[in-house]
Amino acid sequence: MSSNNSNLNITTDSKILKSSTIPTLISGPCSAESEEQMLQTARGLINDHRVHIFRAGIWKPRTRPGLFEGVGRVGLEWLRTVKQETGLPTAVEVANAQHVEEALEYGVDILWVGARTTVNPFSVQEVADALQGVDIPVLVKNPVNPDIQLWLGALERLNRAGITDLGLIHRGFSTPNNKPYRNHPKWETIQQIRSLAPGIPLFCDPSHIAGRRDLLETVSQQALHLGVDGLMIESHINPDVALSDASQQVTPEGLTKLLNALDLDHEHVASPEQLQDLRSLIDRLDHDLINLLFLRSDVSKRIGEYKRANALDIFQAGRWKELVEDRVRLANEVGVDEGFIRAILDAIHQHSIGVQNEVINAAATSPKKEAIK
Ligand code: PEP
Ligand code: MN
């Protein structure tokens, strides 16, 4: 697709950037800090199937020196572990050729150019040159200053290096008065960049616009009303002790609450291609469900063995009552119909009792150890 106003010639046929649901959600910590922090955050995030991509800053471009500047290469190892464990594609910020080389070496799936890099054509060109001949999606954040041409120029440089899977991230601008935001959204720029780079997926990064957790909902909703294709929201297992951007990060549970509060489908009806994506998502979720049911039934079996060894009844009414109350509470919290969840729990419970009966009956009918001797 090309536009009259730029030299872009971009296909947006990216498997990763094209969302499996609308909008595409990228989440993860501002900075990689430790393997535990990364894994715990990612494990929390995959509880919410609306998260598609895991982000983490490995090299942090700080406005002032002496602040936490990122863990570097070791963070890429943690990121690889996150991907292996959760299956989430990963994304990192790159600002020079060395970052690109290391990120590619560790199999990072998506790269993004940060706001402090987009401002500098030399840096963008260095990143573009390092990407020559590489097939990888690249997202470009708007420059810190409200200069749309600079933003577009970065897209063009990457595109001329052969990158066609491009996306934009609107993260707000530094203006003389950003209040109450950290970076002013200047919402009109969304329309401007769209008309200059039509067809390029556009994400919003409410975290860097808001700068504070309590503004995330309003900013995210506004971006969705403007029809953005995705959101990048920073999350951290323990935001209060985060080494960067502590006040704007949310816990994985906080992210779920935020997403629940948003009208995510605003003015979107799935297209035929998106229907295909939605079906693939259903397939993945069903596979997850079956794997989880297998694990659960295996745990039931072990509980059955314990009950047999300790001569306990299979059905423990008190435990079952508590379990149902807990699951119904969670269902109500996340918006799953209560009757539906009760019916599923009943089926699971019946099966679990069946599994435990089998364990006990098998023990009763199997030859005694003495007899084998
Ligand atoms: C970030 O995503 O953590 C970051 C540094 O963002 P930005 O480039 O938008 O300031
Ligand atoms: Mn950040």
TrEMBL record:
One of its GO terms (biological process) is chorismate metabolic process. PROSITE patterns: CHORISMATE_MUT_2. It comes from Pontibacter diazotrophicus. InterPro entries: Aldolase_TIM, Chorismate_II_sf, Class-I_DAHP_synthase, CM_dom_sf, CM_II_prokaryot, DAHP1/KDSA. Residues 269-360 form the Chorismate mutase domain. The keyword Transferase applies. SUPFAM superfamilies: Aldolase (SSF51569), Chorismate mutase II (SSF48600). PANTHER family: PHOSPHO-2-DEHYDRO-3-DEOXYHEPTONATE ALDOLASE, PROTEIN AROA(G). It is an enzyme of class 5 (isomerase). Its EC number is 5.4.99.5. It comes from the Bacteria. The keyword Transferase applies. Pfam families: CM_2 (PF01817), DAHP_synth_1 (PF00793). This is chorismate mutase. Transmembrane segments: none annotated. GO terms for molecular function: chorismate mutase activity; transferase activity. Keywords: Transferase.
